[in-house]
Specification:
Order of helices and strands: HHHHHHHHHHHHH
Structural class: mainly alpha
Low-confidence stretches: 1-26
Number of helices: 13
Number of domains: 1
Distance between the termini: 28 Å
Radius of gyration: 22 Å
Shape: flat
Largest sheet: none
Mean pLDDT: 78
């Protein structure tokens, strides 16, 4: 009887259901148990990010030097392109912000694993085998997104720095520059997780590859429009790189779904 009831439920509904365990290994749990597991997964992820932040803070000087490379040497004639701080605590705050951002990147495998471990009770046994590919694909895609963001970074930075150079003396503060860099690169990294998100939605039967193929034209147009809003500055290169990448990721999502749902 339990198996018949399970056949009528999708995995997500079964995950949130309460009652006795079902026969085929798909456990059910109450809302309280669900929230307890969620708290545990978040706590472990935060610990991993904290450890990554500490490691990044130890190598903060090298990281800052690496992130300064896209800043033009003509950004400020007084500092020769080196950002300045305007407060006694700003230097420490900037280092801390950079360390947290890099710490999140270092902790990404743990965060993805905890995300999968939280989701896996809602999946059938045949779907749980994708845990390792899920984590590896997530890390590779995020690293590719951050790398592309770093390559593209110099175009909006150069445009923003030189835009009003004839009218104003540009004084680039460390806080404004590294905040921009951190969010810009993390945004690219998160955008590159698009195939992972769409593949998971296909696993829980919310979308199909046929749906993505049917809506391909409108989706590509929407992605290119989104790329112009996600990349600050008026340079042509940033939205061009991001738009091309997002279109490729969309097509990659269709391939991933066909493979995993075959």
């Amino acid at each position: 009887m339990a198996s018949n009831r399970l056949d009528e439920q999708d995995p997500v509904s079964a995950f949130f259901a309460s009652g006795e365990d079902v026969d085929d290994g798909l456990p059910t749990m109450s809302w309280i148990e669900h929230l307890e597991i969620l708290r545990k997964r978040i706590f472990i992820s935060l610990i991993a990010i904290a450890v990554g932040t500490i490691i990044a803070f130890i190598f903060r000087t090298q990281i800052v030097h690496f992130l300064q490379q896209p800043l033009p040497q003509t950004a400020d004639s007084l500092t020769h392109g080196k950002p300045v701080v305007t407060g006694i605590t700003e230097g420490f705050t900037v280092f801390l912000l950079i360390s947290v951002a890099v710490g999140f990147i270092l902790a990404l495998p743990v965060v993805l694993y905890q995300t999968w471990a939280f989701i896996v009770p809602a999946l059938y046994e045949k779907e749980k085998k994708y845990a390792v590919p899920f984590i590896l694909a997530g890390v590779i895609l995020f690293a590719a997104g951050v790398s592309l963001g770093y390559i593209v970074l110099r175009y909006p930075v150069e445009w923003l720095v030189t835009f009003a150079s004839d009218s104003f003396t540009e004084l680039v503060t460390a806080g404004s520059y590294f905040t921009f860099v951190a969010f810009f690169m993390l945004a690219f990294g998160l955008v590159f997780e698009l195939p992972l998100v769409l593949t998971f939605l296909a696993q829980v039967d919310l979308i199909t590859s046929r749906t993505l193929i049917r809506k391909r034209a409108s989706s590509h147009i929407g992605l290119w429009i989104a790329s112009t809003f996600l990349t600050p500055g008026a340079d042509i290169y940033s939205p061009l790189f991001l738009g091309t990448a997002m279109s490729c990721l969309y097509e990659l999502s269709i391939i991933f779904i066909k493979i995993t749902k075959k």
